[in-house]
Queue: 4 jobs
Job 1
Amino acid sequence: MQFSSGKIKPHVGWLALPFALVFFAYFVLPLVLTIIVSFWDYTDYAIIPALILDNYIYIFDGCFSNEGGLCLTLKTYLSTFFFCFFTWLITLVLGFCVAYFLAFYVNSIPLQVCLFLVCTIPFWTSNVIRMVSWIPLLGRNGLVNEFFLSLGIIDQPIEWLLYSSFSVILALVHLYTLFMIVPIFNSMIRIDRSIVEAAYDAGASHRQIIFNIIIPLSKTGIIIGSIFVVTVVMGDFLTIGIMGGQQLASVGKIINTEMNYLQFPGAAANAVILLIITIFIIYVMTRFIDIRKEL
Amino acid sequence: MFRKNTFGYYLFLSIFISFVIFLYGPIFSIISLSFQGPDGGLVFPLQGFSIHWFKELWNGSGLVDIGASFRRSIALGFLVMLLTVTLSVAAGLAFRRNFFGANILFYVAVASLIVPSIVLSLGIALEFRIIDNIILWIGKSLEIKQIEDNFQTSLGMYTSGFGAQLTWTLPFGLLIMFAIFNRFDRSFEEAAKDLGASSYQTFRYVVFPIILPSIIGIALFGFTLSYDELARSSQVMGATNTLPLDLRGLTTTVTTPIIYALGTITTAVSFFVIGLSLGLVFLFNRRKF
């Protein structure tokens, strides 16, 4: 986005003030307070202003000694990265294919808009219900198990379909593939069609067109989509909680649990570490692009 | 642009169709299961056909007061929708010219979209807990009896809850405004100015009608994202529960199709709002030409 200094001159900067105030009160200040409180002390019922490192020391307790394998924190982060990686990989491939179909195979604009909306509408419905709706399909007596049983492929129901890493990743893909489709589609429709035509006329195969033209030119969309999916999964506690049957670990769930036990400074310290890791991931990804050019 | 009837076309077409089935299949399975008879269970096959579970839901049989949280969620959704539309349209207009802090504000809004929701939820909860402590301290030191005896918490739907949701809806509003104004033909406005229109008149009679379809789009985001929001508001609603919060609680306790009936109803509300908004967008877009 370019801020032009065109002919329309009334000074309207103040119009952004209410918008800015909301973000100050409900975004900037809470994050600053989280960092401050992560150094506070606490008892069972109160938080006490202080400047201590105990919350951080507790998190990394046992992480730097070589006894007894990995510490809890590292295990949790590994589990979170595991969900992140597979969700990212699947949403990327799936989102790319769907965006590619919409951008290059659907010629009529109204049909394109219509199919794009078909992909978008579930985003405006309830996430919890979208998770619950997998139960009749994946449960012990669910449709998938019944189907395989009736075909004789299996003798007894598959147990790992629901409340497992599988169902968590499935639900995450179900919920968040849209975050890939939108930015990738947005990049793809900006690709100059004549470049693709030229490659085609020069004898490039379909595979060569995709890998040497489409993917490099949709790089920005791919990275924006990846940032969305990775950050949303890094902080996830609802999907991993509900679809994992409250049995699987994630960083978001640790923070959520600590809050339920009113251990706010401990939760804050975990949140700060999660935030630092998330910012680092985003920083690495944005080295490749300029987000503002895309709008 | 690629030729149809090739291998590539059928490959990507089948991926697309499978994706749409994957997207909508589960929701239709719970809609059909919610219309079972009284013997119905959580899985297929369907046991009869009735609206038994909707009646049960209506009578509130044993559940938390779903009706109340449903009304609360609708009310909150409207408030968030109004604020999202007003604040992001105003900010969108401001962003057309450079102003002090424009860059920072843009990055803060985008950062708000990608900061983990649980972190923000924690931060807002902390903020209001600290406010609680300050209020209690004031009450104690000034010996205000009302505060000392009755004050519980400042956390609530209309203090912390709506703010948490706005950090999720406003960035979408701003991005939509950016998207319109980047493609906006300024000559319409300049023509209006040249013909002697005031700033207000230019906005009211020229800019506003052009951006109206997008404003409805922002309203759609504002309402639906608030109505279903859970991650950010999970820690900051205070004593009251919204519908998504109740729903999450029910996922672990309810073992009858009543939860599917509830899912069918919330989905119907969402679909109604989406249909209405898209219909209006379509209508206003047609009228323009």
Job 2
Amino acid sequence: MSEQQHTSTASRPEAVIAARDLTKRYGKTSVVDAINFDIAKGEVFGLLGPNGAGKTTTILMMLGLTEISAGRVGVLGFDPARQPLQVKRRVGYLPDAVGFYDHLTAVENLAYAAKLMGLGMAERSRRIAAALTRVRLVDVADKRVATFSRGMRQRLGLAEIIVKRAEIAILDEPTSGLDPQATIEFLDLIRELKAEGVTVLLSSHMLDQVQRVCDRVALFRAGKIAMMGSVAELSVQVLGAGFVVEVEADGAGIARRLAAIPGVGNVETLADDRFRMTADRDVRADAARAVVAANGALRRLSVDEPSLEAIYAHYFQATPSGGVRDAA
Amino acid sequence: MRREGSAFQGVGAVFVKELSDNISSVRMLMLELLIVVTAMAALYEAIAALRQNTAEDPFLLLRLFTVSQAPLPSFVAILGFLIPLMAIGLGFDLINSEHNRRTLSRILAQPIYRDALLLGKYLAGLATIAISLTALWLLVIGLGLIFLGVPPGGEEIARSLAFLVIAIFYAGVWLSLAMLLSIVFRSPATAALVALGIWLFLTVLWPMLAPAIAQAIVPPDPRFAALGLDTPGTAIWTQLLQRFSPNDLFGEAMLAVLSPTTRTLGPVFLDQIRGAVMGAPLPFGQSVMIAWPQTVGLIACTIVLFVAGYVLFQRQEVRA
């Protein structure tokens, strides 16, 4: 018990999920190998990585749906292995390729889940109506789920989390297989959840989407967390610099002045009037000021934001994986 | 360490949902039609046979269940054959369909234990069968009243109620078996085929195999054969082996409960029945005592199979 006291004070006070040396073994192979992370209240946290890297297993351990081999995970201060009902009452889960009972309507499916949550009848119908409105499924509320598209099913799954009024929403590959329009709508719903103070844990392959909604990401690789942090932090770690700013301007000595801006790594001269600088922060404002100070004519100022895709590709190319397991 | 909360939280919700699914399903409709049509045919034959000689048989109503008129077997024999089919039909995809529809992890992420899902589904299946059998039982009593015109006595009702209860436990055995297979096999088709294979083996092949095995264990004595009698050792072994089939247990229990003159289910020595008034009916309590070991066997079999499924399900990975 004293040990538990120790780690709970060591982790950040606002952490809603805290994993310490969390491990899952099947036989001798470790699918999840002693990972550590803290997720703060209200943030959107992304789990990234190839199939079989241990993302779903980590999620299942957090919900108490699979046994933990070693280590510990605390969810809202509860131990999912010992107090699964407390955890599951407060955490909503949208599984990968979520399924519903096809012969029941959207409302009936939600009502069944709400009954299992222990909600009374009046409360149930009120919350279900509100949730279906939010995910824009009111028109099809009384249609059988068999007729639903993939995107509608995902939204229905999100409605279930809304009905639960979950403090943490765990979404496993929520946007895989969705068309671009459905994806954008779904990401908007995730942002709405975040705005309400719900902590969102998201696992995905879709890197640009993860980048659009996540505050921080963890890069999984063969059961370990290879890297963790905001996209900007990761890009500094992997690509060396975070931001690439291109300046198109006339004027004397602009390259020198640009190089003098704090945080700028180097300045390449692409043409007489075009320069590319790499910096560890967004230096566009400083660059504009520098050009104006040199009495130059600023024609274009663009920034390539660090892309998670570049980071991911760079990282997994640089360190070839040793035996990536297929997802079951 | 004790787990927090009740293992039964959510059983009610699962039970109600599964029961309504069962009752409204086309599959259930087909099974009910099959049973009702075959049972009615057997009953019609029985009524036709009984109307020929409505003598002073004190248990006329019970004859409805047991009288067989070629080519149809008796009502009870048909039920003994068809109840397993109904239970397997309801149970073979209880768990693996949840896996295949990918609903299992979503349902188990609700604040319930796995126990609730398993128990709710099992009880809903058993309740569905119990409702059908009760309806069938009422039909038999009703038809008996209409066509025979003899009001049933209290003991007849008691005996036929005992029949109903034992039939439900018999269905429980097969439902447990089907559920166990639905946990073991991820594909419903495999589970159904294995369940039907076991059912055919135990109801059709085993009654033929058991005497053969018994003869291998205790070869028939030619001296008994010369007298046209069964060798006692072989007969005892045959019965022992046959009792491994739930079908046989059900048949023996039915014989004891529905035929009041049944005094024993196994071979007896002559001195054991000295003083017995042959052909006189036993009191209800005594008949139940004769059927009791078979009934306990059925209940025990149900529990063992259910527990095996329960343990496997608790240890199973939820991810598809």
Job 3
Amino acid sequence: MTSSRVGIISIGWYGFSPSTPEVSFREMMFESSNRAYSAVGIDPRKEVDAFVVCQEDYWEGIAITNEFAPEPLGGVLRPTVTIAGDGLQCIVTAYQLIKTGYFDIVAVEAHSKASNIATLSKIYEIALDPHYVRPLYAKNPLFLAGLEARAYMERTGAEKYHLALVAVKNKNNGLNNPRASYATPLDLEDVVESKPVIDPLTSYEIAPFVDVSITFLLAGEESARKFTDTPIWIEGVGWSTETGTGAIAWHEWGRMRFLRDAANQAYRIAGISNPARSFDFAEVEDRFSYAELVALEELKLAQEGTAHILLESGDFDIDGYLPVNPSGGSLSIGVALEATGLVRILEATLRLWSMELVEEAEGRAVVASWRGIPSFSGGVVVLSL
Amino acid sequence: MSMWRKKCTTPEYPGKMETEKYVYTPGLHGLEFFKTLKEKDAIVATKCGETLYIPPTTLCPDFSKGEVVEVPLTNPWYIASYTIVYEDMDGNKLDKPQILALLVPEEDIVGGIIHYVKAEPEEIDVGLMVKAKLKPREKREGKITDIEYFELVA
């Protein structure tokens, strides 16, 4: 038996703040989950069939951290699985569980307590390949983003100011988003005249970190319609991993082939043949400015080598042909560690709900997330009203 | 970059993750790479068809084994991409910017070596030729740091 469709029926969140000293990470998980369950009147102890959590030992500062997952979600002695990956991968897993027909309502949670991590750069450092990259002990382990950005610029002819335009767009978009702690009025001069941090990237083009917990409830079609009049349907999913720095021999610099692979899979499932003309908006990876432009090309929302040109012409503005990161993206909201993908899909879901009464809207969005430097791993989800 | 981290107003309970000591196995291809670097002025790559993969991969993209071949470090290499690091992740400015680059022995290679380039920021560019500055052979340890840095070829 397979469920015909999978819908998002509720979301709860807590945080969206640079620090959350008032709660432990488990209390954050409880807060977001309780809000998601309460919004639709679901008892997690009886009505949620499985729990999927995206978290990683190093981010938590606890080994075998999966053992901490069930209790704050209401998942003790229930089917709970923890995935060390971006939140979108958990959404994909929940989608698959429901599609089997054996699970009807599945909770997905991911969180970031980045403010607890006293030596964040050391965790990024230890994620680098121990033979070929880490022994260099570069002063900033995010330096790989600079190599990627430069390779992208070389390939496409994009210039520094194109990358800066991404930051200008997203930092300003976030001004209308109450969850965007890092939104700020910004113009192009502010960015291009600031000093680079990881050349060619300035501090405006590198997303800071944020504390947040997000819980989603997904359900099969019949149940989804029981709990809400407006489920957001997951029309297609895809996920892919290239390699990390452990096998950089495989990597094409300045590209995100894993996103292309994931997008092809998601579009195939959703029956989308012309992605550039299929969506009302896109919420995509932008923890570094260049990443948004690369992602748009890999998602086939812009032809090869044209994303920066379309950006400059205003196509991706909030009132443009295809608004990209109208929420403000990670540059405005912050990087939420493994919850970053859930932030993207949260923002897309809320925007789709707000478009319910807009007649001319297709009511369809694409969401893409990357696990960040130094990974080459991510997911894509197609959503519709 | 450090503005996200605010001082907590609640009591702090510091901890330390005891993961700083670990013994990594480089594997057959890794051992060959570092042995070659230590004993010769060269590294090894995996040749799959006409394409060289650096560092050497265990398998080719088609899951075949490929051939391990030596690639000299005595010839000029090229800068395929580069970055200049001015600040650490906590927002502290570096006394001296670090230039890191993706370096390849020929322009259409897949992969490459990531390493430092000794140059001034205004001198660096994609496509420039560089040469490896190796440690004296008696001081080499079979590590990537046996290459001290790459320097621009005049």
Job 4
Amino acid sequence: MPPLAFRATVLERRDYGCASEVIFRVGDGFSPLPGQFVHILCGGGGRIIRRPFSVFRHEGGIASVLVREVGGGTAWLRRRRRGDELDILGPLGRGFDLTGGGEHVLLAGGIGVAPLAYLGRRLTERGGKVTLLWGMEKGTEYGSLPESLGEEFDLHIATADGSRGKEGTVLELLSPEMTPGTHLFYACGPRSMLVALTERLSTAGLPSLQVSVEERMACGLGACRGCTVPAVEHPGGYLAACRDGPVFRAEELDWKRMMESI
Amino acid sequence: MEADDGIDLRVELAGISLKNPFLVCSGTFGNGREMSELVDLNALGGLMTKAVTLEPCPGNPPPRLWETPSGMLNSIGLENKGLERFLAEDLPWLSRFDVPVWVNVAGFSAREYVEWAEAVSRSGLAAAVELNISCPNVEKGGAFFSRRPREAAELVARVREVVDIPLFVKLPPLPGAMRETALAVAEAGADGLSLINTLPAMAVDVERCRPRLGNVTGGLSGPAIHPVAVHAVWEASGAVDLPVIGMGGIWSCSDAVEMLMAGAAAVAVGTLNLVDPRAVPRLAEELAGFMRWKGYRRVPDMVGLLRRRGWG
């Protein structure tokens, strides 16, 4: 669908530890694919460019984003209350390809769980078998969100400090039977996590992996070329995270150069 | 367009007719295609294309963006697909719209600038050439020329010889040298000036002790640079009798009027397009309202009004 420019009324905010789900009303024409994002103007105070947020939830005229406070813009958005208005462009970008069959393994690093939860719901609706693997720093980081997502999905958690689930990163949760031959992989999280995952799956496994990348963006439409990621095509070339992505087939990206900028 | 109440937003720049005095700055609108999903290109006064180089250019390593208070740092580095594809794909596509197109020509040598500007002129699809001799993000590119008035004038003269359409020269703010440079490029045959390009700038991640931009340095745009741009327009328009397109951090109708009153014949919206692709039609409507309120009937009534009122 073409992107829309609209103002949305905040209906509710749910706090989950270090993150908040900001829930807002959307029109009938708004139908985001899993992995697509909304570009939100996050207040004044010298902040001039929009911030991109993956869609976390969408049904029945209501959508939400999951916001973790990392700076002034996210702090502003996290503090929205019922009745506040948001200035939004979206949905933007390329979402996940949902057409593959087999078992689906969703790997989330931290706040990267947002697009994957939305993806998981859509895959489940299509009759897919979904396993959600989620890595975080410590068990209490996201409040009651793990319980909430645990009711929807076959959820497994890893924590860096071992306070919940398995100790280590989300990759610790990959079991030997989860192989590229039988499973499809979808990931969103810090670049270091995505790089480690591509190494784990090795070159032969890359066709089974889709990743959603997080980059600072300006226009969100592919015009300014500010949010580029290194591409395999055209040596030395780039793809725009906002338009060509934010979801890429892993084999489209140049992981050696991705690694250099961690 | 002329409204019923006699408010006339039309302007003429070096013989080119614009529906309204708002263009979009090079690099902030792609080549129109991406933005056309959200805005009617026919509503623009004019469109300045993303800088195009003779050969395809991959651009600078990411990260390429960093927001600063009321500003944005970028180091895109002229990423573009090169002259051949631009002439074959983008320019013909743009020519379907009723909007004059300034093709922003960048180069890594004088020969490239000349060759490329000639090709643009020959295409018959561009209203004007905007010679980009002020991009802060490429080593050998424009900034070299704009820092040296004599070299800039020589380049402008060489390009002037090969183009049959109006030639605008895009300059950075040059404190202390704005007048001298404006005069030099005017004498060399420029038909207009675009003022200003981004300002060289940088930011540092102190946690990790590394530059915020992959290219280390970049160019600053946005409201933070607006007063600098107004000053540059003021200086240049006082020195030469050429139309000046004022640009730099225009975020509101009054920002645009400031430029006009300081001496700009038209203005261009830049970074704001990245936030609001529909900024130009919105600002054009606001400008009509301002003119109605203040009793200006035509845009030229406001152009250079400060000097006409005895300032400077």
